[in-house]
Structure formats: structure tokens, C-alpha cells
Design goal:
The chain is α/β, with parallel strands linked by helices. It is 29% helix and 24% strand. Helix 4 crosses helix 5.
């Protein structure tokens, strides 16, 4: 019997309905640990290949144009090259507790590097748009052993940043160059992985679900980057939940333009799509930051037939101003967004223009991304972020001035949003950052204010701290103010 979800051992040919809380409760009577079929992200992608190993996993469009000559990776090729990348890193001395930091735009090698790093050790994808001193702080805090970075390339300054920080990272043992001028030298990524076997991990590693998969940097309320520790179990749960709630199907395409240093890009979209047998249509190295991605949006939808338009709210809002013209966009069944709140006016406009529901999600890096979602088989209330995904929980709590738990809030009473579940991390890499991270063991303090209505819908009403959210990224005002204050 074929399974609707490769990641779930218990779901057969049809996905379950979650039209009521009772449906979710019945579903949860089977322990989650009995359901999940993959211990690691590496195993999850292998399950995605079961439907058709020669199906397209990644189709990279160099200029985000539908007529681009694409770079194509089948599932078989993605798994083989990720295996080679893991073996290359092992040969460079990377073990299960060693960190591989990644400074890359959305090239095919970025996905290979990410999943290869998680198979060999601990991945640390870093925002290449950060300033050199910020990159150095993150790489030092992570204890980076190997850095994989874009080589000298016109239009980018990543390699220049690498040159500025390399001697400031005391743990750094090697740098691997992806592409760029002289990109075929001794330290070149493609050359190094080509020399490795593709049929097995030469380390012999058996990746356990409790093993650390990645460190993700996140904006904190102090302006100091915090490193969120994700286990393989945290990340695989995210892929499982997204495939379940968004009713993913093998062979379906997703227009992909989110960065891999963001959990929404690496987990909610990339890992979820690839573990479900879908296909990522990568919209150039810059993703949605490339103006051509939005300009060509509707011809891209017509050609690749995605069922979901999914990104941060700023992209969804911008899509409203792009004329559809004669493009056939009938494949779209809904829009989905997260990273920051979808303004109700934007949600209404999306529904009116495309005649499809708008699915809002909510979560944070500390919950491995999506923790609540507007359920497809329940009434959607614009402005709400829906209900917790199965096996996850949400509470609204009152905290005292020192962020200590006082009590749970009543229905419709505003308080701090706290979350628990298989996606919730166990703490930051730097233990000093954990002081107010949890309201109780297992319950992460989101720092957001919200309320649960009488039907259990979660409404986010503000932030407990003055964090700025821009394009789905958390930005602390302090560093920006510091730069402004330097001006005469």
C-alpha cells in the first residue's frame, strides 16, 4: 500500500481530517514516536525519494525566469551528493559534534552543503548579508571547524567577508570554496565532493534523533546573536507537521525563494518539500530578493503548477501588485505566510484576488518554525494564526516583572504565548541565554503577546519586547540605533 506521507508510518493512502479538536485528539492517541519514520534529516530526504528516486528534487533557475535553462538535481543525485559532502567533511576532520558553518546564497550546492553537514556533524547556516564582525561573532560562538562559503563572485562580497573574518575564528581548521573565480582549485567544493564515495557514509555514522543537527542564529532582545540548538528530531518533526497540515503530495512543486539560514526556508519549505517527494523551484541565488522573482511570478506559477504560494507576508503583499495577465494560475489552492503577521487587509486582498484561502502560520526558530497553523478543514479567521499542529501545545500565561510564571490566562485574556511540543528546542548553545527562555521545563517563552479565543484560535497581539520584524526576520533595534547614533 502506498502512503500519503512517507514520514508517517501510520497514515495510509488518505490524509486524516482535522475538522474538530476531537479529530486531533483521536489522531494523537497514537504516540508521535510510533508515527515518525525518520530519525534524521538525512533519513527524511531518503524517504522523500521512495516515491520516485529519479524525480526532480531541486530545479534551480539562475535568473528566476520560467525559460531559464535550469540546473536539475534528482532525488538520487541530491542524496548521492549530500553523501559525498558528508564524506568530504568527515575527511576534513568533522565528527558528529563538530560545526560546519555555511555562507552561501541559494545555489544547488547550498542544499547539498546543508544536508551533508547535518549528516557529518552540526550545520550552522549563516546570513551572508550580515556585517563581517557579526559573522565572526556567530562563527566563534558556534565553534566553527569548517566554513563553506561562496568564492569571489561579481555582485557579492561574501568572499571578501570571509577574508576579513577567517583569522578571527580560533576553532576554524578549513575553508571550502563554492564556485567563484578559481572555483576549481584544491579547496573547491565540487572538486572535493567528487572525490568521495556516494553510496555510504564512510564514517559509519548512525544518526540518532537526539543528535544535534544544526545551530541557527536568531535575533535576541539584547542584540547579541543567540544560537538555537536543533536536534534531528526537532527538524524532522517540522517536516512531518508541514506535510501533514499542508497536505503535501509527491511530485508537487513549490516556488522557493526563502534563505536557508532561516528556519522557514530550510525546514518549513526545503526539508518538508524534499521529505514529501516534492520539487523545489529555486528562484535564483537571491530568491525572493531578486526583483525578477516577483516580476515573473505568474508565468512561473503557470509553468510549474504549484498548489501553494508560500513566503513571508512582504512577498505575499507584493504579489498583489503584480498583474496576472493571461497566466493560468488555476493550480493555486491557497496562500500561506509566516515569519511576521499577515495584515488582515492583505489577507482579504489575497482571498479576493486569487479566490483561495490564506493560511497563516506561527512559530519561531526555537520551535523549529511552524507551531500553529490555520487548519485547512476548519473556518479560517483572518488575523488568527490558527491552532497548534498535532502533538504541540500553546498556553497564554501571565509572567511577573522577572519573567517568572504566575498563572495561566483565561480565554480571550492577553498574556505571553508559551509553546511546547516535539519541535521545541532544549535551549541555546550559550547557557546564559536560557535564563528567561522557558516559563517551565519544555515550555518556551515566545516573547510574544497573544490570546486564545473560546474556540482555541490563537491571536498574536504584539511583542513583549520591542523587537522589529522585517521580511520575516527578527531585528533588534539596538544595533540599528547604534549605527544611527554614530552619525554626526
Amino acid at each position: 500500500m502506498s502512503r500519503a506521507m512517507p514520514l508517517d508510518r501510520c497514515i495510509g493512502e488518505a490524509l486524516p481530517s482535522f475538522a474538530s479538536a476531537d479529530d486531533v485528539a483521536a489522531f494523537e492517541r497514537t504516540p508521535y514516536t510510533e508515527r515518525i519514520a525518520a530519525a534524521s534529516t538525512f533519513d527524511a530526504i531518503k524517504l522523500g525519494a521512495v516515491h520516485d528516486p529519479d524525480a526532480v528534487a531541486i530545479r534551480f533557475l539562475p535568473t528566476a525566469h520560467p525559460d531559464d535553462a535550469p540546473v536539475v538535481l534528482t532525488y538520487r543525485q541530491l542524496i548521492e551528493r549530500s553523501t559525498q559532502a558528508a564524506n568530504m567533511l568527515h575527511a576534513l576532520g568533522v565528527g558528529p559534534t563538530d560545526v560546519v558553518s555555511i555562507l552561501l546564497p541559494l545555489l544547488p550546492q547550498a542544499f547539498i552543503a546543508l544536508f551533508g553537514a547535518e549528516a557529518a556533524g552540526i550545520a550552522n547556516p549563516v546570513n551572508p548579508l550580515l556585517e563581517p564582525h557579526q559573522i565572526a561573532e556567530i562563527l566563534t560562538a558556534a565553534g566553527t571547524k569548517v566554513l563553506i562559503a561562496l568564492g569571489p563572485t561579481p555582485g557579492t562580497d561574501i568572499w571578501e567577508k570571509v577574508a576579513k573574518v577567517a583569522d578571527k575564528i580560533p576553532t576554524l581548521k578549513g575553508i571550502v570554496q563554492v564556485g567563484g573565480v578559481n572555483g576549481d582549485g584544491a579547496g573547491a567544493f565540487d572538486k572535493l565532493i567528487a572525490a568521495q564515495p556516494s553510496d555510504r557514509l564512510i564514517s559509519g555514522r548512525q544518526i540518532a534523533s537526539k543528535d544535534i543537527a544544526a545551530y541557527f542564529h536568531t535575533g535576541g532582545t539584547t542584540g547579541t546573536p543567540k544560537l538555537v540548538v536543533h536536534t534531528h528530531a526537532n527538524q524532522v518533526y517540522q517536516a512531518w507537521a508541514c506535510n501533514l497540515m499542508l497536505q503535501s503530495k509527491p511530485g508537487k512543486s513549490l516556488l522557493y525563494g526563502m534563505p536557508l539560514f532561516h528556519v522557514g526556508g530550510s525546514l518549513t519549505q526545503a526539508l518538508a518539500t524534499l521529505s514529501g517527494g516534492g520539487s523545489l523551484i529555486v528562484l535564483s541565488p537571491a530568491g525572493w530578493r531578486n526583483p525578477a522573482a516577483l516580476k515573473n511570478l505568474w508565468p512561473l506559477v503557470e509553468k510549474f503548477r504549484p498548489e501553494i504560494l508560500s513566503s513571508v507576508p512582504t512577498v505575499l503583499a507584493a504579489a498583489l501588485s503584480v498583474p496576472v495577465g493571461n497566466a493560468d494560475i488555476s493550480s493555486l489552492k491557497y496562500s500561506a505566510g509566516g515569519g511576521s503577521a499577515i495584515p488582515v487587509a492583505v489577507g482579504k486582498a489575497l482571498q479576493a484576488k486569487f479566490k483561495t484561502p490564506v493560511i497563516e502560520v506561527y512559530g519561531m526558530t526555537e520551535t523549529a518554525s511552524v507551531h500553529t497553523i490555520a487548519y485547512l478543514d476548519r473556518p479560517i479567521r483572518l488575523g488568527s494564526v490558527g491552532h497548534p499542529v498535532p502533538y504541540s501545545r500553546v498556553r497564554i500565561v501571565k509572567l511577573d516583572a522577572d519573567d517568572h510564571f504566575e498563572r495561566d490566562c483565561a480565554s480571550n485574556e492577553i498574556g505571553v504565548v508559551a509553546m511546547a511540543g516535539p519541535g521545541v528546542f532544549g535551549g541555546y548553545l550559550n547557557a546564559t541565554h536560557n535564563a528567561h527562555a522557558f516559563i517551565e521545563p519544555g515550555w518556551v517563552n515566545s516573547g510574544d503577546l497573544g490570546r486564545l479565543d473560546d474556540d482555541g484560535y490563537l491571536w498574536i497581539t504584539g511583542r513583549a519586547k520591542d523587537l522589529v520584524i522585517r521580511g520575516g526576520h527578527n531585528i533588534d533595534p539596538a544595533p540599528i540605533e547604534e549605527v544611527l547614533f554614530q552619525h554626526p
